[in-house]
Amino acid sequence: MVRMACSPAPAPARSRLRMSLAACVLSALFLAPGEEWIAAVAQDSGSVPAGVAEAATSTKKSTSGAKATARSTTTKKRTTTASKSRTHRKTTAKKSRRTHARPSKGVNARAAVLIDAQTGEVLFDKNSGTPMPIASLTKLMTAMVFLESKPDLSKRVMVSREDLAGSGHTQLRAGEVLTLRDLLHGSLLSSDNAATRSLVRNSGLDSEEFLARMNRKAQVMGLPNTRFVEFTGLSEQNVSSASEYAQILKTASLHPLIAHITTLPDYEYRSSTRDHYLVNTNRLCRYGIFDVKGGKTGYISESGYCLATWVSTRTRDVIAVVLGAPSNPARFAETRKMIDRMALAQPTAARGI
What we know:
Elements: H1 13-31, H2 35-45, H3 50-99, E1 111-116, E2 122-126, E3 132-133, H4 138-148, E4 156-158, H5 161-164, E5 177-179, H6 180-189, H7 193-201, H8 207-220, E6 239-240, H9 242-253, H10 256-262, E7 266-270, E8 275-279, E9 291-300, E10 304-312, E11 317-325, H11 328-343
Antiparallel strand pairs: 1-2, 1-11, 3-6, 4-5, 7-8, 9-10, 10-11
Helix pairs in contact: 1-2, 2-3, 4-8, 6-7
Protein backbone atom coordinates (compact mmCIF):
# COMPACT_ATOMS: atom_id res chain seq x y z
CA MET A 1 0.00 0.00 0.00
CA VAL A 2 1.47 3.24 -0.98
CA ARG A 3 1.23 6.19 1.36
CA MET A 4 1.03 9.63 -0.15
CA ALA A 5 3.12 12.47 1.44
CA CYS A 6 0.90 15.19 2.80
CA SER A 7 1.82 18.91 2.54
CA PRO A 8 1.12 21.09 5.52
CA ALA A 9 -2.12 22.87 5.37
CA PRO A 10 -1.72 26.37 4.10
CA ALA A 11 -1.83 29.01 6.84
CA PRO A 12 -4.80 31.26 6.91
CA ALA A 13 -4.34 34.56 5.03
CA ARG A 14 -4.50 36.63 8.24
CA SER A 15 -1.55 34.72 9.77
CA ARG A 16 0.53 35.17 6.63
CA LEU A 17 -0.05 38.91 6.77
CA ARG A 18 1.10 39.10 10.38
CA MET A 19 4.28 37.19 9.57
CA SER A 20 5.09 39.49 6.65
CA LEU A 21 4.69 42.55 8.82
CA ALA A 22 6.95 41.11 11.50
CA ALA A 23 9.62 40.33 8.93
CA CYS A 24 9.47 43.87 7.64
CA VAL A 25 9.85 45.27 11.13
CA LEU A 26 12.88 43.09 11.87
CA SER A 27 14.51 44.04 8.59
CA ALA A 28 13.96 47.69 9.38
CA LEU A 29 15.59 47.33 12.81
CA PHE A 30 18.79 45.84 11.39
CA LEU A 31 19.10 47.46 8.01
CA ALA A 32 17.42 50.87 8.05
CA PRO A 33 19.87 53.82 8.31
CA GLY A 34 17.79 56.35 10.21
CA GLU A 35 16.15 56.38 13.64
CA GLU A 36 13.27 58.48 12.35
CA TRP A 37 12.21 55.69 9.90
CA ILE A 38 12.28 53.06 12.69
CA ALA A 39 10.08 55.19 14.89
CA ALA A 40 7.64 55.78 12.05
CA VAL A 41 7.32 52.02 11.23
CA ALA A 42 6.89 51.16 14.89
CA GLN A 43 4.11 53.69 15.32
CA ASP A 44 2.35 52.54 12.14
CA SER A 45 2.56 48.77 12.70
CA GLY A 46 2.25 48.66 16.46
CA SER A 47 4.42 45.51 16.39
CA VAL A 48 7.69 47.05 17.67
CA PRO A 49 8.10 47.16 21.45
CA ALA A 50 7.58 50.55 22.94
CA GLY A 51 11.13 50.62 24.30
CA VAL A 52 12.60 50.51 20.82
CA ALA A 53 10.51 53.40 19.59
CA GLU A 54 11.28 55.44 22.73
CA ALA A 55 15.00 54.78 22.31
CA ALA A 56 14.90 55.97 18.72
CA THR A 57 12.93 59.09 19.66
CA SER A 58 15.20 59.75 22.65
CA THR A 59 18.26 59.41 20.42
CA LYS A 60 16.76 61.92 18.01
CA LYS A 61 16.08 64.40 20.82
CA SER A 62 19.55 63.90 22.27
CA THR A 63 21.17 64.45 18.90
CA SER A 64 19.05 67.54 18.23
CA GLY A 65 19.86 68.87 21.71
CA ALA A 66 23.61 68.31 21.20
CA LYS A 67 23.46 70.12 17.87
CA ALA A 68 21.57 73.01 19.43
CA THR A 69 24.06 73.20 22.30
CA ALA A 70 26.96 73.15 19.87
CA ARG A 71 25.34 75.92 17.82
CA SER A 72 24.74 77.93 21.01
CA THR A 73 28.35 77.46 22.18
CA THR A 74 29.69 78.43 18.75
CA THR A 75 27.48 81.52 18.74
CA LYS A 76 28.66 82.48 22.22
CA LYS A 77 32.30 81.99 21.21
CA ARG A 78 31.79 84.11 18.12
CA THR A 79 30.06 86.82 20.19
CA THR A 80 32.81 86.74 22.83
CA THR A 81 35.53 86.84 20.18
CA ALA A 82 33.85 89.74 18.41
CA SER A 83 33.43 91.58 21.70
CA LYS A 84 37.09 91.02 22.61
CA SER A 85 38.12 92.16 19.14
CA ARG A 86 36.08 95.36 19.48
CA THR A 87 37.52 95.98 22.96
CA HIS A 88 41.06 95.34 21.67
CA ARG A 89 40.53 97.75 18.79
CA LYS A 90 39.19 100.43 21.14
CA THR A 91 42.08 99.93 23.59
CA THR A 92 44.62 99.99 20.76
CA ALA A 93 43.04 103.14 19.38
CA LYS A 94 43.20 104.83 22.79
CA LYS A 95 46.86 103.82 23.24
CA SER A 96 47.61 105.04 19.75
CA ARG A 97 46.01 108.38 20.51
CA ARG A 98 48.02 108.66 23.73
CA THR A 99 51.30 107.66 22.11
CA HIS A 100 50.89 109.69 18.96
CA ALA A 101 49.09 112.69 20.39
CA ARG A 102 49.33 115.69 18.12
CA PRO A 103 51.99 118.08 19.45
CA SER A 104 50.80 121.39 20.82
CA LYS A 105 50.80 123.97 18.01
CA GLY A 106 53.00 121.65 15.96
CA VAL A 107 56.00 121.92 18.34
CA ASN A 108 57.61 118.48 18.66
CA ALA A 109 60.25 119.49 21.20
CA ARG A 110 59.91 118.18 24.75
CA ALA A 111 59.54 121.71 26.08
CA ALA A 112 59.25 125.18 24.60
CA VAL A 113 58.35 128.70 25.65
CA LEU A 114 57.99 132.03 23.89
CA ILE A 115 58.06 135.15 26.07
CA ASP A 116 57.70 138.84 25.33
CA ALA A 117 61.11 140.16 26.37
CA GLN A 118 59.72 143.52 27.50
CA THR A 119 56.47 142.67 29.27
CA GLY A 120 57.11 139.06 30.32
CA GLU A 121 53.92 137.90 28.60
CA VAL A 122 53.95 134.17 27.85
CA LEU A 123 52.97 133.78 24.22
CA PHE A 124 53.47 130.03 24.00
CA ASP A 125 54.07 127.33 26.61
CA LYS A 126 54.76 123.62 26.37
CA ASN A 127 56.12 121.97 29.52
CA SER A 128 58.07 125.17 30.23
CA GLY A 129 58.31 124.45 33.97
CA THR A 130 59.75 120.95 33.64
CA PRO A 131 63.49 120.67 34.44
CA MET A 132 65.52 118.75 31.88
CA PRO A 133 69.11 118.57 30.57
CA ILE A 134 70.23 121.74 28.79
CA ALA A 135 73.58 120.61 27.33
CA SER A 136 75.75 123.49 26.03
CA LEU A 137 73.19 126.11 26.99
CA THR A 138 75.22 125.82 30.22
CA LYS A 139 77.96 127.89 28.62
CA LEU A 140 76.03 131.17 28.96
CA MET A 141 76.11 130.84 32.75
CA THR A 142 79.79 129.87 32.56
CA ALA A 143 80.52 133.01 30.51
CA MET A 144 78.64 135.28 32.94
CA VAL A 145 80.54 133.96 35.97
CA PHE A 146 83.84 134.21 34.06
CA LEU A 147 83.25 137.86 33.09
CA GLU A 148 82.19 138.83 36.63
CA SER A 149 85.86 138.53 37.66
CA LYS A 150 86.71 141.21 35.02
CA PRO A 151 89.55 139.26 33.38
CA ASP A 152 92.08 140.74 31.00
CA LEU A 153 90.73 139.31 27.74
CA SER A 154 93.93 140.13 25.86
CA LYS A 155 95.92 137.80 28.09
CA ARG A 156 97.46 134.92 26.17
CA VAL A 157 97.15 131.44 27.66
CA MET A 158 98.19 127.94 26.63
CA VAL A 159 95.77 125.07 25.92
CA SER A 160 96.56 121.99 28.05
CA ARG A 161 95.93 118.29 27.58
CA GLU A 162 93.59 118.52 30.56
CA ASP A 163 91.41 120.95 28.59
CA LEU A 164 91.22 118.57 25.64
CA ALA A 165 90.55 115.31 27.51
CA GLY A 166 87.00 114.13 26.79
CA SER A 167 85.99 117.44 25.24
CA GLY A 168 84.82 116.05 21.92
CA HIS A 169 85.32 117.93 18.66
CA THR A 170 87.58 120.97 18.92
CA GLN A 171 89.92 123.01 16.73
CA LEU A 172 92.36 123.48 19.61
CA ARG A 173 95.56 121.51 20.16
CA ALA A 174 97.65 120.99 23.28
CA GLY A 175 100.34 123.64 23.61
CA GLU A 176 98.54 126.12 21.37
CA VAL A 177 98.56 129.72 22.68
CA LEU A 178 95.67 132.17 22.21
CA THR A 179 93.93 135.00 24.06
CA LEU A 180 91.12 134.69 26.60
CA ARG A 181 88.96 136.67 24.16
CA ASP A 182 89.52 134.02 21.50
CA LEU A 183 88.68 131.28 24.00
CA LEU A 184 85.44 133.08 24.91
CA HIS A 185 84.50 133.26 21.22
CA GLY A 186 85.23 129.55 20.86
CA SER A 187 83.05 128.73 23.87
CA LEU A 188 80.02 130.83 22.92
CA LEU A 189 80.15 130.91 19.12
CA SER A 190 81.13 127.36 18.17
CA SER A 191 80.32 125.77 21.56
CA ASP A 192 83.86 124.40 21.98
CA ASN A 193 84.13 122.38 25.22
CA ALA A 194 87.96 122.54 25.34
CA ALA A 195 87.85 126.35 25.03
CA THR A 196 85.30 126.49 27.87
CA ARG A 197 87.46 124.34 30.16
CA SER A 198 90.51 126.47 29.36
CA LEU A 199 88.54 129.62 30.26
CA VAL A 200 87.60 128.20 33.66
CA ARG A 201 91.14 126.96 34.32
CA ASN A 202 92.54 130.43 33.56
CA SER A 203 89.83 132.36 35.42
CA GLY A 204 91.81 132.66 38.67
CA LEU A 205 89.23 130.49 40.51
CA ASP A 206 89.54 126.81 41.32
CA SER A 207 86.94 124.63 39.60
CA GLU A 208 84.90 124.00 42.79
CA GLU A 209 84.56 127.71 43.53
CA PHE A 210 83.70 128.50 39.92
CA LEU A 211 80.94 125.87 39.93
CA ALA A 212 79.64 127.11 43.29
CA ARG A 213 79.34 130.61 41.84
CA MET A 214 77.34 129.30 38.89
CA ASN A 215 74.82 127.62 41.19
CA ARG A 216 74.75 130.57 43.56
CA LYS A 217 73.96 132.91 40.68
CA ALA A 218 71.06 130.65 39.66
CA GLN A 219 69.71 130.86 43.21
CA VAL A 220 70.03 134.64 43.31
CA MET A 221 68.13 134.83 40.02
CA GLY A 222 65.31 132.78 41.58
CA LEU A 223 65.76 129.64 39.48
CA PRO A 224 64.93 126.65 41.72
CA ASN A 225 64.94 124.12 38.85
CA THR A 226 68.38 125.11 37.54
CA ARG A 227 71.50 123.20 38.65
CA PHE A 228 75.03 122.78 37.32
CA VAL A 229 77.57 120.03 38.04
CA GLU A 230 80.19 121.08 35.45
CA PHE A 231 80.95 123.97 33.07
CA THR A 232 80.40 122.73 29.50
CA GLY A 233 77.03 120.95 29.46
CA LEU A 234 78.45 117.52 28.68
CA SER A 235 76.72 116.16 31.80
CA GLU A 236 72.99 115.43 31.68
CA GLN A 237 72.87 116.58 35.31
CA ASN A 238 73.12 120.20 34.18
CA VAL A 239 69.40 120.99 34.16
CA SER A 240 66.99 123.86 33.86
CA SER A 241 63.46 124.49 32.59
CA ALA A 242 62.52 126.38 29.45
CA SER A 243 61.00 129.27 31.41
CA GLU A 244 64.00 129.55 33.77
CA TYR A 245 66.49 129.39 30.95
CA ALA A 246 64.66 132.23 29.23
CA GLN A 247 65.62 134.35 32.24
CA ILE A 248 69.25 133.18 32.00
CA LEU A 249 69.36 134.14 28.32
CA LYS A 250 67.84 137.55 28.96
CA THR A 251 70.34 138.30 31.75
CA ALA A 252 73.30 137.06 29.69
CA SER A 253 72.25 138.99 26.58
CA LEU A 254 72.18 142.24 28.56
CA HIS A 255 75.96 141.87 28.86
CA PRO A 256 77.35 143.74 25.79
CA LEU A 257 80.23 141.33 25.09
CA ILE A 258 78.08 138.20 25.37
CA ALA A 259 75.44 139.78 23.13
CA HIS A 260 78.09 140.74 20.58
CA ILE A 261 79.74 137.31 20.44
CA THR A 262 76.54 135.25 20.35
CA THR A 263 75.12 137.25 17.43
CA LEU A 264 78.16 137.11 15.14
CA PRO A 265 77.72 134.86 12.09
CA ASP A 266 81.40 133.86 12.27
CA TYR A 267 84.77 134.80 13.77
CA GLU A 268 88.41 134.53 12.67
CA TYR A 269 91.58 134.65 14.75
CA ARG A 270 95.18 133.42 14.71
CA SER A 271 96.70 131.41 17.53
CA SER A 272 100.42 130.84 18.07
CA THR A 273 100.45 128.13 15.40
CA ARG A 274 97.66 128.66 12.88
CA ASP A 275 94.53 130.47 11.69
CA HIS A 276 91.11 129.57 13.06
CA TYR A 277 87.67 130.12 11.55
CA LEU A 278 84.60 129.71 13.78
CA VAL A 279 80.98 129.55 12.64
CA ASN A 280 78.04 130.39 14.89
CA THR A 281 76.05 127.25 15.71
CA ASN A 282 72.90 129.42 15.87
CA ARG A 283 71.73 129.42 12.26
CA LEU A 284 69.35 132.30 12.90
CA CYS A 285 72.42 134.56 13.16
CA ARG A 286 73.87 133.41 9.86
CA TYR A 287 70.93 133.80 7.50
CA GLY A 288 69.63 137.23 8.50
CA ILE A 289 66.07 135.99 9.01
CA PHE A 290 65.67 137.83 12.32
CA ASP A 291 67.39 140.62 14.20
CA VAL A 292 69.05 138.41 16.82
CA LYS A 293 70.08 139.95 20.15
CA GLY A 294 71.52 136.85 21.80
CA GLY A 295 71.34 133.09 21.83
CA LYS A 296 72.96 129.70 22.38
CA THR A 297 72.59 126.15 21.09
CA GLY A 298 73.13 122.85 22.88
CA TYR A 299 73.09 119.13 22.25
CA ILE A 300 73.86 115.86 23.99
CA SER A 301 71.91 112.64 23.47
CA GLU A 302 70.11 113.01 26.81
CA SER A 303 68.96 116.57 26.14
CA GLY A 304 68.09 116.40 22.45
CA TYR A 305 68.62 119.52 20.36
CA CYS A 306 68.23 122.78 22.30
CA LEU A 307 68.09 126.43 21.25
CA ALA A 308 67.57 129.66 23.17
CA THR A 309 67.44 132.93 21.28
CA TRP A 310 66.33 136.54 21.70
CA VAL A 311 65.04 138.16 18.51
CA SER A 312 63.47 141.45 17.59
CA THR A 313 60.45 141.32 15.27
CA ARG A 314 58.46 144.16 13.72
CA THR A 315 55.92 143.97 16.55
CA ARG A 316 57.97 143.03 19.64
CA ASP A 317 61.10 141.48 21.11
CA VAL A 318 60.71 137.85 22.10
CA ILE A 319 62.78 135.19 23.83
CA ALA A 320 62.29 131.66 22.49
CA VAL A 321 63.57 128.52 24.20
CA VAL A 322 63.27 125.05 22.69
CA LEU A 323 64.48 122.02 24.70
CA GLY A 324 64.66 118.47 23.36
CA ALA A 325 63.89 119.02 19.68
CA PRO A 326 64.20 115.82 17.58
CA SER A 327 66.84 117.15 15.17
CA ASN A 328 69.18 120.05 14.48
CA PRO A 329 66.97 121.58 11.74
CA ALA A 330 63.85 121.05 13.89
CA ARG A 331 65.02 123.32 16.72
CA PHE A 332 65.35 126.24 14.30
CA ALA A 333 62.17 125.43 12.38
CA GLU A 334 60.12 125.19 15.58
CA THR A 335 61.58 128.44 16.91
CA ARG A 336 60.63 130.18 13.67
CA LYS A 337 57.17 128.60 13.82
CA MET A 338 56.56 129.95 17.33
CA ILE A 339 57.77 133.41 16.39
CA ASP A 340 55.79 133.55 13.14
CA ARG A 341 52.56 132.40 14.78
CA MET A 342 52.76 134.21 18.09
CA ALA A 343 55.21 137.09 18.07
CA LEU A 344 54.01 138.72 14.86
CA ALA A 345 50.49 139.06 16.20
CA GLN A 346 49.50 142.36 17.78
CA PRO A 347 50.53 142.63 21.46
CA THR A 348 47.89 141.81 24.06
CA ALA A 349 47.66 142.42 27.80
CA ALA A 350 50.62 140.92 29.62
CA ARG A 351 49.99 137.77 31.67
CA GLY A 352 53.39 137.60 33.34
CA ILE A 353 55.74 134.69 33.66
